[in-house]
Amino acid sequence: MLGDQIKKMRLAYGLNQVQLADKLGVSKQSVSNWENNNILPSVDLLLRISDFFSCSTDYLLEKEEMTVFIETKNLTLEQAIHLQQLAKDFEIINKRLNEMQK
To answer: Tell me: the pLDDT tens digits for 29-78?
Structure first.
């Protein structure tokens, strides 16, 4: 559920609920309510959450696998390509690790 995804991303970023609330300009109670699936954020807030976590709204809504976007506008093309290659290398490493664990 959406609340579980928000909590997962918040914890991955090492934030508590108060810190996330401050970053999004909402109350700690709002974040708590989302994470407990008591209420849903507005569409505007959902977009702000996805922008903050650099992930798609589809990921937050569990419509697709994890896709995290990395802001590269202040990087050179070569630097952005290096980041892309690093991500591919991690995919290969994870695949090999998963195969070894079977």
So the answer is: 999 999 999 999 999 999 999 999 988 899 899 887 766 677 888 999 88
Q: How many residues does the structure list for the chain?
A: 102
Quick one: tokens of 48? Answer: 């702000």
Q: CA 49, CA 56: separation in Å to the nearest integer?
A: 9
10 Å CB burial of residue 2 (0-12, 13-18, 19+) is: middle
Distance in angstroms (rounded) separating the CA atoms of residues 8 and 14:
10
d(CA 69, CA 74) in angstroms, rounded, equals 14
Measure the CA–CA gap between 48 and 69, rounded to whole angstroms: 14
Distance of CA 77 to the CA centre of its chain: 24
11 alpha-carbon distance from chain centroid: 10
The end-to-end CA distance of the chain, in Å, is: 29
> Residue 29 has which token pair?
């109670």
